[in-house]
Amino acid sequence: MPPRSAHEEYPTWVGFVFIFNLIVGTGALALPSAFSHAGWILGSLAIVVLAFMSYVTVTFVIETMACANAVHNWKRLQFIKRDRVIEYDEDSNVESLVDRPEASDSDNDAEHERLVDDQLTDASIEQTPLNIMYCRKTYYTLSSKIELGEMANMFFGRTQRFLFYFCLAVYLYGDLSIYSAAVAKSLRDVACAHNHRANATDDDDGTERCWQDGLLTRLDVYRLCLVAFVTVLGPFTFFNVQKTKYLQLLTVLFRWLAFSVMISIAIHRLLAPVDSTALPITPKRADIAGIPYLIGTCIYSFMCHHSLPSLLTPIANKGRLKALVSLDYVLIGGFYLALALTGIFAFADIKDLYTLNFVPSADQANGLLKAVEYFLALFPVFTLSASFPIVAITLRNNLQTLFLDAAQLEAYNFFLRRVFFPLLAILPPLVVCYFTESVSNLVGFTGCYAGTGIQYLIPVALVLSARRTCDNMIGRGIVNEFHSPFKGTVWPMLVIGWTIACLVLVTIDLVI
After folding, report:
1. Backbone phi and psi for residue 282, each to the nearest 5 degrees, phi listed first
2. Within a domain: residue 113?
3. Is 127 within a domain?
4. Is there a domain that residue 421 lies in?
5. Three-state SS across 27-72?
6. N or C end of the chain: which has fewer CB within 10 A?
7. 445-481 burial by CB neighbour count: b if 16+ within 10 A, else e?
8. Could you give the CA distance from residue 222 to residue 217 in angstroms, rounded to a whole number?
9. Bridge partners (DSSP) listed for residue 10
10. If pLDDT is split at 50, 70 and 90, which confidence band does 327 have?
């Protein structure tokens, strides 16, 4: 885990954009529908509260990242100290501790530490290239990229590590299912756009024809698009590919353009209604029955915790990191409110995937507007197709970590490593989406059950364990400048209580 070189770093504003792009993803497309179920007053309050709880646990992850770096730096420092002790012994013709047959290993360790404290001075260490690590402020850094899985291995026991990888695998399965359903549904609605009733629901897809004189129903076309999508992109799971910086920047551009256009169209519909004779749309203000659905969707919509090490470590100036993340969350919260509020006041019926409200209409004569409608309808296809192989490969690797010994991975046979686990990653989402096309249900389930683990429980468990480890190893005299502003045990306990409340609400809603 070496520190990143200068050419791998990027300025603060790039990190700001990348965090925004990471959070504002597929969940945002399902947010207006969930928002409409809860009502605009209750929904607005829920978004603010859930954004705040997500921000709290993001600060926990950042603090744990710094603690993991501190542990890594401390261990390197101990290695340097021991190396200097050996050199000191040789130069001074002092009998080496390891040559004493009567000394046990524990005695050797204790004597080494005594020699370091009593005989080595700062001046004697200055010749080492890593003497910067003796500075009290350089223990807690974000210079090395330590992923969430590495932190779990560092701070968790065996059972906790298993639960971590299991929870992450369930979340990634949900991710792939949402991607598959969203892409297949978007392709289907574009293909069947000229023979689709505006008030049709998912329940009508089994009987409604895709084409007026055709034999295939909308459900048949959805399943064909689903199988085609997985067939085209699924084989990438058998290899290793990376999402390049340029592809990520292109995705950012597409995403910002699409969301800006959707908000603009909704505002235009409010200011200049399509049907001037129709009564204005009056969405409900509050409906407590819609809260469980909104909770799962919001948790999924504010998810970024699993990718924070990859995004924050390359930022060159980390002195303003807390302000950067805070500003990101404020803007994203405002952006989600703007997207949801304009949507529920502009459309009487909001689809579970918001882009489906902009499906090209047969009576659209303006060529530019028709092109915009096609762009919005196919927007999930563009962005999610680029992310699908990356998520599938990540899931494959996590499944291997969960069930195989990572240290002896090459010892397993070829079929198990290169065929079985890739298939295990892509086939279950295909089966799930074959029997359900409800993006809202997939988002709600993934966000609430797997999402609460990734966004709430794991950060709390990590930060509590990391604080305890660093206090015992490094001591409390050195302050972690990346510590969370939510100190003590009250805030972690509050997050756990909030998690239990969310799980109870959603579970009761599913049972009833």
Report:
1. -125, 90
2. no
3. no
4. yes
5. HHHHHHHHHHHHCHHHHHHHHHHHHHHHHHHHHHHHHHHHHHHHHH
6. C
7. bbbbbbbbbbbbbbbbbbbbbbbebbeeebeeebebe
8. 9
9. 315
10. very high
Tokens 């480890």 found at: 469
Separation of alpha carbons 420 and 500, rounded Å:
36
Does a structural domain hold residue 299?
yes
**CATH code: domain of residue 216:** 1.20.1740
Place of tokens 């807690």: 140
Q: What is the pTM of this model?
A: 0.81
Q: For 359-416, write each residue's pLDDT tens digit.
A: 877 666 777 888 898 899 899 998 888 889 888 988 988 888 888 876 777 788 888 8
Structure tokens at 324: 């950067």
- The whole-angstrom separation of Cα 1 and Cα 282 is 55
Q: What's the rounded Cα separation, in Å, for the pair 380 and 343?
A: 18
Residues 210-253: tens digit of each pLDDT? 888 788 888 999 999 999 999 999 998 998 766 566 777 788 88
> Phi and psi at residue 146, in whole multiples of 5°?
-115, 110
Q: Into how many domains does the chain fold?
A: 1
| Domain that residue 201 falls in | 12-78+140-273+283-511
With 0-12 / 13-18 / 19 or more C-beta atoms within 10 angstroms meaning exposed / middle / buried, residue 178 is buried
